[in-house]
Amino acid sequence: MKNNKNVYSTRFLLVPLSLSLVLTGVLSLFAIRNLQGNARVINYTGIVRGATQRLVKQELNHQADDAMIGKIDLLLNELETGEGPDALIRLDDEQFQSQVQRLQEAWIQLKAAIVDYRGGGSAENLYQLSEIYFDLANDAVSFAETYSEASVHRAQTSLLFVNVFFLLLTLALLYFSHIQHKRQKLLEEKEIETRRKQAELDQLNRELQAPMNEISELIYISDPETYELLFINESGRQAFHVDSIEGRKCYNVLQGLDHPCPFCTNAILKENETYTQEMDNPLTHCHYLLKDRLITWNGRRARLEIAFDTTQSEAEKQRLKRMLENEKLIVDCVRELYEDEMLESAIPEMLRRLGKFMEADRITLCSLNPVHFTVTSRWSSDPQDPTRLFSDARVKPLIGRWLKQLQKNQSYVVENIEELKTSSPEEYALLHSLGIARLILLALEVRGEVTDCICIHNPAPDKLQNSIVVLQTLRYFLLLARHRAADKIKLAQLSYTDSLTGLFNRNRYIQDLDKKMQSPEAAGVLFVDLNGLKEINDQFGHDCGDQALKSCADHLRACFAADSCYRIGGDEFVVLTHDLNEEEFFDQVHHLRLRLQNSARLHLALGTDWASCGSLLPSAIKAADEKMYKDKKAYYYHATQPGRYRHHTDEVLPLANLNVLRQKINESRFLVYFQPKIAIETGQLVGAEALVRYQLDQNLILAPNAFIPLLEETQTISQIDFFVFEFVCLRLQKWIREGRRITPVSVNFSRYTVLEETFCQRCIELSDHYHIDRGLLEIEITENALDVQEEDLRHTIDTVRRAGFSVSIDDFGVEFSNLSLFSGADFDILKLDRSLIQDIASNAKARALIEAMSDVCQKMKIKLVAEGVETEEQLSILDQCHVEIAQGFLFSRPIPVSDYEAKYLPLPHPEE
Predict the structure, then answer these.
(1) DSSP reduced 3-state for 305
(2) What is the CA radius of gyration of the chain?
(3) Which site from 378, 527, 682, 884 is most exposed, i.e. has the minimal number of CB atoms within 10 Å?
(4) 3-state class (DSSP) for residue 845
(5) For residue 527, what pLDDT is reported?
(6) Angstrom distance (rounded) from CA 537 to CA 528
């Protein structure tokens, strides 16, 4: 051992000596290199001086040497910058560099004197300048030599300092080695003493283990550093089924873990202090009170832990705690339900409290029927949680099964979905895919029928059965709160709301009018009467009449605040504004008139007036009422026999709301189908028409005539028009990238969309955004649109065609076609309506008309397209009439875009 120490000390001393040798050598090399560079600078400074002397002599002897002048220029520049072909360094000395600059200036003057002398100037001037230059060169050499001597002195000093430093370091290390040797000897003596004391401690520990093994509490001792189990008494061995503790870790034997316990107290234990905690043990399934303390065991620092079994008392404590928690939850939730006037805000708070109590992932309140669940309120422990159990299509087959269970037992509990693997594999697969391991469904009933349920996802295991009574109690109070809220809403509706239109009724009108008459604020008054309500009820039934009243209410709500609108009689409405100034009020009235002009089925009589303060409201109301009756008389004076009152189905009526329409577009509920256009002569694909559909649900897709009139009536049709146009641009971009054969695609635009000021600009922006050649896009407008604001429409068509798009006139031949469109509007394509094509085989007049139209279109270079071609006979006659393009069921119905691609635009082969 001593030999090893000596070898270590020798190696320890060799390190600084080696470093000293290396550092001295490196410094010497750098010093030599610097001295060499300095010497070259001194040498070349002398060369400059000598070369200049030689040059002057030659010049005085009329021997011009321009090469020498150039060489001197290079040397002086290299002495100044350190850059040049002679590899000189730049001497880092201020005196030398200043002298070099003076040399440069003197050299410039000397060169000027040489030029002057060559031209016949004075030799005396040249000679005097050369003497000055030689003196400057001599001084430069002196400065360089002085700098070099100083560099040598610095190098000597550095080498001396390094050698002295490492000599002192070696002496210090020798002294440190001597001290360490003395300490080692002292440690060896203490080690012998420690061994003796350890033997005594071992004997003492053996004597202590006997009474510890007789104690009924669990006792164990472990190493706080390595977690090695040093001792466990007999009670502990029996409880944990331990035969041998040799080499085993405390966390493995006592907790069944492969790593230190997260609640381990080793890091916080202090000398002479006892740490107490309570813990459930996963191996014995008992609850223990633990006492931890640091002790000395067999001469080493150890942790002693005594475990007192408190399972029974803990169970009782937990039972009381659960009872208190249950009662608190019920009280808090009931208070929330009954103190909050708005049940819609109280229910989410109740779900949040219940979710925290159940320690669940999420809770949803759903309304249900045998077909589907609808989530009405929801809470999640993770705000970003995307899971939607009842919006998943796969859940539908399970709804009936759950509903039966809820009707039978009012609750459905899945404690572990693994139990469903064999009994209900479909339900198991769904719940497992959604990350649901445990599930509680709790029914809410109305008159004995299950209408809603509370769904709890992944509650804590210990909450599953223990909380069913609490859930049933909360269910009861929630039902009571819902009944109370429904009664309040019903009462308010009956008192102040018109049940048909949802507007305030006459009672509310009288109440609000009294308040407004006491207010100094100004108010606008609008009286509205629905014209022809009796005729609608008589001809189409009261359902249509009710629908007309609802539409009237919708128009009022669209233009004025909902709390300003009242239905005060059968077909009479009033608006009393509170949030508009006079100009804004009449602007909104104008906006209402514009809406009504675009509504073919609704005719309203309007009367308005303005009250500058509340006290003038009665006179303003009277004036507005009189104006309304004048408007009503004018309508009946000019009215003709009303036509059939068209109404829309309940399924599409929500689309009249712009927000709902945008939501359905974002949900991809509007589908774009393609119908091919075929060249009659060749049978080849020459284009397609994009047609929109509305997917009401998975099994029902509506044609355009089911929803387009409604969108036109509500002036929201441009949302769909540009959605289809952008879809076509995106699809064309995809086809171009894939190398498919591209043909033009036509897109239908409503007359309302075409007349928008930004229509053409939006088309241009979309086509440019997707980099689509505008020649591939056809703007299709219905023929009857030409009768609406003819000049504006023609201007728009001209603008569209100048932008590079083709314009197609659709539905030519419907009702009374206007032949003046050929002279009044420029367009590229004319589409014959299917009504002209249907009886072309048997109707000679229809055939003659088509032949004439074909002749006119050929002369005017307008493409003619026949729609609705369904038979080969029709196609043959159209060919004889020289119609170029056909479209109809004979070739293909409108089909989804994927089918259109597969059938008409196959991907090119790789070799192509």
Answers:
(1) strand
(2) 50
(3) 682
(4) helix
(5) 94
(6) 19
* Six token digits for residue 881: 């009439």
625 vs 642: CA distance, rounded Å = 25
CA distance 20 to 66: 54
Cα–Cα dist 32/158, whole Å: 13
Give the span between the Cα atoms of 805 and 387, in whole angstroms.
46
Report how far residue 871's alpha carbon sits from residue 876's, in angstroms, rounded to the nearest whole number: 9
Q: Give me the sign of the Cα torsion angle 511, 512, 513, 516.
A: positive
Residues comprising the chain, all counted: 912
The pLDDT, as a whole number, for residue 645 is 35
Q: Is 780 helix (H, G, I), strand (E, B) or coil?
A: strand
Q: Give the pLDDT score at 183.
A: 85
- Give the number of other CB atoms < 10 A from CB of residue 304: 19
Cα distance between residue 717 and residue 751, in whole Å: 9
List the alpha helices (DSSP H) in 667-748: 708-713, 717-738
**Residues whose CB falls within 8 Å of the CB of residue 380, separated by 6 or more in sequence, listed in order:** 355, 361, 362, 363, 387
- In sequence order, the 6+-apart residues with CB closer than 8 A to the CB of 151 are 31, 34, 35, 38
Look at the block and give the residue holding tokens 């303003």.
620
Q: Quote the CA–CA distance of 435 and 418 in Å, as a whole number.
A: 12
The whole-model pTM stands at 0.36
Instruction: Specify the pLDDT at position 204.
Output: 66
* Distance between CA atoms of residues 910 and 897, nearest Å: 23
Rounded-to-integer distance, Cα 801 and Cα 430, Å: 55
User: Which residues on adjacent β-strands are paired with residue 452?
Assistant: 367, 444
Q: Which of helix, strand or coil describes residue 723?
A: helix
Tally of helices (H runs) and strands (E runs) in the chain: 28, 24
Segment (H or E) for 107: helix 94-118
Report the C-alpha gap between 527 and 504 in whole angstroms: 14
Sheet holding 523-530, edge to edge: 565-567, 572-576, 523-530, 604-611
The count of other CB atoms within 10 Å of the CB of residue 555 is 21
DSSP letter assigned to residue 504? B
Instruction: For residues 534 and 142, give the distance between their C-alpha atoms in angstroms, rounded to a whole number.
Output: 124
- pLDDT at res. 821: 57
Alpha carbons 900 and 904: distance in angstroms, whole number? 6
Distance CA 546, CA 732 (A): 46
Q: With left for phi above 0 and alpha for psi between -120 and 50, is residue 896 left, alpha or beta?
A: beta
Cβ atoms of 310 and 287 within 8 Å: the answer is: yes
CB atoms within 10 A of CB 120: 6
Strand partners, 289: 278, 308
Q: Give the pLDDT means over successive 10-residue stretches in the chain (912 positions).
A: 54 66 72 70 78 80 81 79 76 80 83 82 80 82 80 78 79 80 83 75 67 80 87 85 85 87 86 87 87 83 87 76 73 72 74 83 78 75 66 67 78 84 84 84 76 84 73 76 73 80 90 91 93 78 88 92 91 91 92 80 88 91 90 61 43 84 92 94 93 85 84 87 95 93 93 86 94 93 57 80 90 56 74 83 85 88 90 90 92 93 85 54
Which pLDDT score is estimated for 634? Answer: 65
Q: Measure the CA–CA gap between 367 and 377, rounded to whole angstroms.
A: 10
Q: What is the pLDDT of residue 324?
A: 75
CA distance 128 to 133: 9
Quickly tell me which residue has 């040797």 as its tokens.
181
Given a contact cutoff of 8 angstroms between Cβ atoms, the answer to whether 732 and 724 are in contact is no
Residue 787's pLDDT is 46
Distance, CA of 526 to CA of 589 (rounded, Å): 8
- Angle between helix axes 311-339 and 468-496 (nearest 10 degrees) is 0
The pair of structure tokens assigned to 61 is 């002897």
- Give the per-residue pLDDT at 641: 38
With contact defined as beta carbons under 8 Å apart, do 366 and 455 qualify? yes
- Residue-level pLDDT at 386: 60
Task: Work out the angle at residue 173's Cα, subtended by the Cα atoms of residues 169 and 176, and round it to the nearest 5 degrees.
Answer: 140
